[in-house]
# Entry
Amino acid sequence: DGGITQSPKYLFRKEGQNVTLSCEQNLNHDAMYWYRQDPGQGLRLIYYSQIVNDFQKGDIAEGYSVSREKKESFPLTVTSAQKNPTAFYLCASSILQGTVNEQFFGPGTRLTVL
Amino acid sequence: KQEVTQIPAALSVPEGENLVLNCSFTDSAIYNLQWFRQDPGKGLTSLLLIQSSQREQTSGRLNASLDKSSGRSTLYIAASQPGDSATYLCAVSVAGKSTFGDGTTLTVKP
# Structure
């Protein structure tokens, strides 16, 4: 089955802890993205990567970090510097063909700070 | 900075009605526009993608149009069904980055 997997589905974090969200894709897509979604709102871009070993900050990168050591994997770490991390986190990937950027999404991880 | 607006925020219709969801964007220099469906607590499912050179795309009961010059797109759903109940989001892409609207939550009543 081709697709994007995210784990865990639910994650609970204590104040001051760093946590890492996993995102894996077997679609052979070049680009990968992390978004945050708050209740009743659209998606906001945290980080994105268009090639292995390279990534760029999105609109709300403060308090987050990423790595892209393999084409298939793009983990997101939510650090203790992120003041309000409770949200729904979505990972996406796309194959960049010319100007076409069609994104496909994983099932999401819901992070709750206790 | 690109801004994407979706109106209305919520819509409730009886089963069988045809309906239109709206998406507007401020910067017309886009590469493509994508419509998604999101069920509660789930990820996004891609419905239709319209490239900047295209005017519309169709898939089954769905038809999406794009007017770049006016910064607008519409998603037309024919003969709505209760299973169409979900939140619909549009996203515009430029240079590998996408900007999303807040979505329209659709409820189709049996």
